[in-house]
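Students often ask why inverse folding is considered easier than folding. One informal answer: many sequences map to the same fold, so there is more than one right answer. In these notes we will look at a single instance of the problem. The structure comes first.
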């Protein structure tokens, strides 16, 4: 399988050179193959969110490299990194972060418009994604009128709207009750598998981790594969 995402020798220290310096990544490396879904497991505060932000080009490392689709983005301009975030990477967080003033379908359309997708095409694609995860009937509702599970499913659709190469998810069901979490995670996995997406999904839930292709553990700043 071809490589979708690769991190090599990633190091990150906050407040370097100070008494309160905190090293969270110490040579972290891994490869994510095309179509592979991998669980990222680590205790709170171990640096998994930092790792995801570096992998998704939201943050820079102190050392090491990040490749997406074989392209090394280390040291490239902010414009190139911004374009890659928009076109190559989809993000999902524990909280949905939907824009409250827009309807559910508009939240899924907006990222596509930023990528110059024509309005009619963007709406059709948004509705197709929402149909796949069972929220098409709520398309015209604003986020406040949706349940927590519905909001997160819309967030999934928004993350996949621009057909990214890689999906990065940080505790995507961590804000939901166990029953809703299982249902919503199943919807996410179906969507990922159907689209052939590569995904790195951080979770504290061992049952959810077991449903993915393999598990990476972040231990003392280094990634260890189960």
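Output (designed amino acids):
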């Amino acid at each position: 399988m071809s490589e979708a995402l690769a991190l090599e020798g990633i190091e990150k220290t906050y407040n370097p050179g100070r008494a309160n310096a905190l090293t969270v990544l110490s040579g972290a490396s891994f490869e994510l193959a095309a179509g592979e879904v991998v669980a990222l497991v680590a205790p709170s505060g171990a640096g998994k969110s930092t790792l995801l932000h570096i992998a998704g080009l939201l943050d820079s490392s102190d050392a090491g490299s990040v490749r997406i689709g074989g392209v090394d983005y280390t040291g490239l301009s902010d414009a190139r990194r911004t374009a890659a975030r928009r076109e190559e990477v989809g993000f999902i967080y524990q909280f949905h972060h939907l824009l409250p003033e827009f309807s559910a379908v508009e939240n899924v359309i907006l990222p596509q418009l930023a990528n110059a997708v024509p309005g009619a095409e963007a709406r059709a694609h948004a509705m197709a994604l929402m149909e796949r995860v069972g929220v098409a009937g709520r398309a015209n509702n604003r986020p406040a009128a949706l349940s927590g599970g519905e909001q997160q499913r819309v967030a999934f659709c928004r993350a996949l709207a621009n057909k990214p190469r890689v999906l990065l998810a940080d505790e995507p069901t961590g804000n939901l009750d166990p029953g809703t979490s299982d249902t919503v995670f199943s919807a996410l996995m179906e969507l990922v598998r159907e689209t052939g997406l590569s995904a790195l999904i951080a979770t504290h839930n061992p049952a959810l981790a077991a449903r993915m292709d393999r598990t990476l553990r972040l231990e003392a700043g280094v990634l260890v594969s189960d």
